[in-house]
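ugh finaly. both done.
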Amino acid sequence: MGSESYQEAIEALTKLLIEKEELKTVAAAKVEQITAELKTGELAKGQSPKYMVFACSDSRVCPSHVLNFQPGDAFVVRNIANMVPPFDKAKYGGVGAAIEYAVLHLKVNHSFYNGLNHKGSLKWVALGYPPS
């Protein structure tokens, strides 16, 4: 929890839940719109994205928002520092499986990386974490 006390954390969580409750009707309308599109629109036919995007898990940067993607436009893989580890059947299966699915099944046309400079996660890796 860092320097935050237990009580401060509970107060912050309570405030967040109250704010989210106020957005409930807005969120419900958006979910209803997307659900309707998934049932009856182009998205009901399945996904056929043109792009595969590798993006950082950084909560401040949402690739769909930054790139103005709509549902169905991009197949997005998010992880620490938008890394694509070397192929290894025994390790790092998630990224490899996502690439295989996007290329072989979804037939994406383009892939690209979306991220920030001076990443804290890269500094973390450079320091030798996680320990081997």
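ok and the 2nd:
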Amino acid sequence: MRRFLQFYDMSVFGGDNCAVNNRLAHLLAVPLVGCASHRLNLAVRGFLVPYDEAFEQVQQLMRKLRTLKQAAKLR
């Protein structure tokens, strides 16, 4: 792989498969810079954990309000 990158004068390799990216980084003995959007997603999920119960209640309410008759009762 190193020869491939050197042959094409490349210093960065990108991919969209986490398992493959981890394996390539391991094979090349280079640090893996993970996807920023994935890290942000994990951080937001961690931040929102205390609100899980409230989100579940809102989701249950929205399921009940799917019909027009139920939604009209709110008006």
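summary for the 2nd one i guess: The CA atoms of residues 21 and 71 lie 47 Å apart.
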